[in-house]
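Quick start: what a row looks like.
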Amino acid sequence: MARRAIFPFTAIVGQERMKRALILNAVSPRIGGVLIRGERGTAKSTAARGLAALLPDIDVVADCRFGCDPNRPHTWCDECRERHADGRIEAINRKTPFVDLPVSATEDRVVGTLDIEKAIQRGEKHFEAGVLASANRGLLYVDEVNLLDDHVVDLLLDSAAMGVNVVEREGISFTHPARFVLVGTMNPEEGDLRPQLLDRFAFSTHISGLADTNQRVQIMERRIAFEIDQEGFTAEWQTQEQALSDQISRAREMVKAVTYTRRNLVSIAGLTASMNVDGHRADLVILRGAQAHAAFKGRTRIIDDDIILAAELALPHRVKGRPFQTQEITADTLSETLDDVQQEIGADGGEEMDDNSQQESGSEKKKL
């Protein structure tokens, strides 16, 4: 069976906010996923598949069906912990998985099932893996997520946030890693998600067809060129694809080392408070998104631009009473609000550092 050709991610015209949301989640899956909301024909699924195709290959434990990371034994599944208690393993390289979840998926299909009969009669713990096992360390794509059962959406979001799947039945449990980039897409004409579920998605972006004539022509030209000669078109974009893949790989390695100041934290908290955002999830999402953006740009500490660009993705579906009104949540608006917040902080306010931060030099502050 011929492998389906993937339209290059870097060849997608426009939709920069959507592409940024996907890239930052690829850099740091801990962010917690992205919901892409828009009408048909706006490259939602094309972008998700394109991102997965350019993600770097991964090393996995050779005999593990969950794709455990050989370099992180503390995250191994129960089978790897038992089988490789002595630490001796064989590692192999494979492509980053892309898993497409059907709308009809049930809880058991998603999380997996334990065979209670075998456990009771034979004393064997047998686990039938689900979708979360297949998606570990890859990308899990859910089209029409608004049509999926709410309980299943909750399970997906829990796993995306925690990075682990725990299945318990009759006092028996099985644990395996479930660290993945969660991408949900939906057409608003078919109904919305409940507000409680909207808030669980770390990022959201509302996209629509491009109004610029030149961009629309570019879309037609590139799509036709891809359909006529898929291999040739893919080869034409290979340099850009490889460059982005390498940039994501480098950012993944350095994101945990990206530092921040207490002033950054106060700025984020002041920004969300001034916009009447409920809860504290948005604050943490903005911080993680800012760290991912800084790492993607090759920096080891966050600046105001990182905060603004992360907030642009974290706030549209959380601003009270205005879900998805992205025209009200622009980078310019956020920049003005952040300036107001920082003026209230004062020149010296919030500069005390915690254990996870480094003091900024005067010259670096001038660049912010």
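That is the whole record. The first strand starts at residue 34 and ends at 38. Residues 238-254 form the longest helix (17 residues).
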